[in-house]
From TrEMBL:
The gene is LOC104754112. This is Probable disease resistance protein At1g61190. InterPro entries: Apaf_helical (IPR042197), NB-ARC (IPR002182), P-loop_NTPase (IPR027417), Plant_NBS-LRR (IPR050905). The lineage of its organism: Eukaryota, Viridiplantae, Streptophyta, Embryophyta, Tracheophyta. The keyword Nucleotide-binding applies. Pfam families: NB-ARC.
Amino acid sequence: MGNFVCIEISSDQTVDRFIRFLRGKGYIRNLKKNLRRERRHDINKGLKLSSYNYGKSVYLLLEEVKNLKSEGNFEVVAEPAPTSGVEERPTQSTIGQDKLLETAWNRLMEDGVGILGLHGMGGVGKTTLFKKIHNKFSEMASGFDVVIWIVVSQGAKISKIQEDIAQKLHLCGDEWTNKNESDKATDIYKFLKKKRFVLMLDDIWEKVDLEAIGVPDPTREIGRKVVFTTRSREVCGRMGDHEPMEIKCLEPEEAWELFRNKVGYNTLSRDPVIVQLARKVAEKCRGLPLALCVIGETMASKTTVQEWEHAIDVLNTSA
Ligand SMILES: Nc1ncnc2c1ncn2[C@@H]1O[C@H](COP(=O)(O)OP(=O)(O)OP(=O)(O)O)[C@@H](O)[C@H]1O
Ligand SMILES: [Mg+2]
């Protein structure tokens, strides 16, 4: 009947207690499953292992547990989980945003930073970077309970922002609907006060009154963050971030890379003159990703030198 695995856990009470502590984490929790898997693996490799070997591996494992306990080194067995409920947002591949993402993420994760603004001209890539920051919460452990993404946009009212936040926090219902703005603010406040939260406001055009919405002051306690994007440097200051991050246009080589990708190899490989003209068109976009993307995509179907020359004429007259 094959090799049965007989696991005899030591009666040592300390080890027992420690095993209970480890339940729910990693290898030990799934000890039986892991041993079964190892056994299958060994059998697949053509090895005939006896229960003695398994008894031995359990013994070695318990020794390791004892050592870990004596070192107090528990990180090895307990991996913190990513923030739950953060749904990844679709993003496109980008040029030159990796470093920015790292800088923004590191700033945001600093304990002393409660509010962080990203500013830059329209089409420069603020929302794109913002999505990447958001997605990082879904990928890795950040220590936050809730991450809320809200698109604010021009003219947004307090009530609309409250509604969006309440929806994300599942506070809505008949009772909620009948409340006035101030009571809704109290509900949001009561909920968020107990949480480690990140509120992400995309595209704000003026100061957002966090208190009126019910958002606990992010500068008063660690574990509260408000991060936003805006076109206006002034709005950053009014929101309380006096050292906001500026998102700048792409460097010339980055711009060319983005443009070249959008136009595509098929078109560019038709004629070396098209490549020269394409470089000129890319320069006209002055590193603005939105322009590079839109014009690049449009030019992808222009396969004659004449069409490219015409495009340059048009850009010259509209500049
Ligand atoms: N670094 C980049 N690499 C590739 N594409 C980019 C990059 N930055 C932005 N884009 C593209 O440019 C377009 C505009 O970007 P985005 O919407 O992020 O700009 P924005 O700064 O938020 O603009 P707005 O102020 O109007 O909200 C998007 O289609 C995006 O995919
Ligand atoms: Mg945007």
